[in-house]
Amino acid sequence: MHNRFDGKVVLITGAGSGLGQASALQIAKEGARLSLVDLNTASLEETKNKVLESVPKADVLLTTADVSDEKAVENYVNQTVQQFGAVDAFFNNAGIEGKQNLTEDFGIEEFQKVINVNLNGIFYGMKHVLKVMKKQGSGSIVNTASVGGIRGVGNQSGYAASKHGVAGLTKNSGIEYGQYGISIKAIAPGAIMTPMVEGSLKQMDPDNWEEAGKEFVKPNPMKRFGKPEEVGYLVAFLLSDQANFINATIIPIDGGQANKY
Prior knowledge:
By secondary structure, the protein is α/β, with parallel strands linked by helices. The chain has two domains: 9-190 and 227-253, NAD(P)-binding Rossmann-like Domain (Rossmann fold); 194-225, no CATH class. It is 48% helix and 15% strand. It is built from nine helices and seven strands; from the N terminus they run E-H-E-H-E-H-E-H-E-H-E-H-H-H-E-H. It has helices spanning 18-29, 41-54, 70-84, 108-136, 157-177, 195-204, 209-217, 228-239, 257-260; strands at residues 9-13, 33-38, 60-64, 89-92, 139-144, 182-189, 249-253. Strands 3-2-1-4-5-6-7 form a seven-stranded parallel β-sheet, with helices on both faces. Strand 5, helix 5 and strand 6 form a beta-alpha-beta unit. Helix 3 packs parallel to helix 4 (108-136), helix 4 runs parallel beside helix 5 (157-177) and helix 6 (195-204) packs across helix 7 (209-217). The longest helix has 29 residues, at 108-136. The mean pLDDT is 94.
């Protein structure tokens, strides 16, 4: 395997599970120095242990942070630069689903919570990492949007609104910062079997969520859930120099789901 990240510093939020963890494991195998961020310290430690099982000499920094708090975001960026001297690539991934409800029944506090994490958290991360990358004259950012940032998602107004916002921020910032040698893109995952998706299924049918999952993926052209490691492969490519000319765009990884509806 080519070590596309030899000596490079890769910052990942939401690294304690799901897409963040899978991406960290893949990128570590390719030689990166990792700065991993999550709200859950125990989950972060679990990811670090998995990384070290696979790459015993991996250089890993852990920072517990709430991405909806700009000061905490500024701190995890500063900690990364202090430890490693740069931020070469940034997987701006942390997010939540929020509760499922009709728009009229969506509580304003719940709506704001989803926006604060999924949209404001992405914005804060970009704001502070872009300052570092602009000085470097190089960098790559991958934001996590969603199929729900391309089309509507019933009973998830907060989530869909936040992910549409991520898509807009990605396109706009890619246009602004391409001139500084920085490429910015977003992934739009569909149904990937992560703890967050499992939680969504349990909201749909708490007592029989696995069967609900089988029904959920039937309309998908590939008739299955995606795997976190499949997203990790894509993220690794998009963060690498091989994908530097991919900019200001949203890339679905959804088994064809977005194109079917």
